[in-house]
Amino acid sequence: MFVVSEDGTCIAYEVVGTGKPLVLLHGFTADHTIWREVGYVERLAGRQLILIDARGHGRSDKPHVPEAYDAGRCAADVAAVLNDIGAVNADICGHSLGGTIALAFAARYPNRVRSLVVNGAHPFGQDLSLLRAAVSVGIEPWISYLRTQTWPLTDGNVRQLRSNDLDALRACVALDRSDRSAPFVGFDRPILAISGEADPLCPKVRDFAALAGADYLELVGCNHFQAFLAVDPICARMEEFLALP
């Protein structure tokens, strides 16, 4: 399915199942299919899962200008999808880039958030120069980097990664992220923050959890990507967290 966001960007999404809506937002260079591939869709059955292709990824439009990836525009994409399916609010979950979009959505549309699950992301300022360097000469260095992070890439993963629009990826990470933590001081929706212990972002995720009074799950020995692939402990904690009134 497709919907047009407020700035005219076409956003692709898929809805799986029925029940309370749970939005799943993928990381940089992935697309919505990753949630099914690694096992989240199966584990989270019993919910209405809303799998969104972030702008610049998957079947969504792929702008080539950095301004198109402003946090407010990315947040509006999620709102457009919820409007399209008639959902007033939803639980919102994102990993990495998807976590950043989830935070932007929560900051802009707090009344549309039932709860927030953020894995490997935080609302503080962030230098994206490593991501810029990773895709500066093509996708192969990024694929090689993922392999060093013990991501067991399948042939399908590699095909999906190589299908990315490099100019869109470069625009997506062209600008460093500014601090957007203020809305989470006293935020009145439940938050679960997740990080791999070996993720360089872990201290910032811990700081975010403390700032927001969030529940916190730290995955021992996991790096940024392994903390996404740890489906069983994450879904067990999410199921407990999402069951809260």
UniProtKB/TrEMBL annotation:
Keyword Methyltransferase: no
GO molecular function term, any single one: hydrolase activity
Alphabetized Pfam families for the sequence: Abhydrolase_1
Domain of life: Bacteria
Domain (AB hydrolase-1) ranges: 20-123
Coiled-coil residue spans: none
Name this polypeptide is given: Alpha/beta hydrolase
Organism: Mesorhizobium caraganae
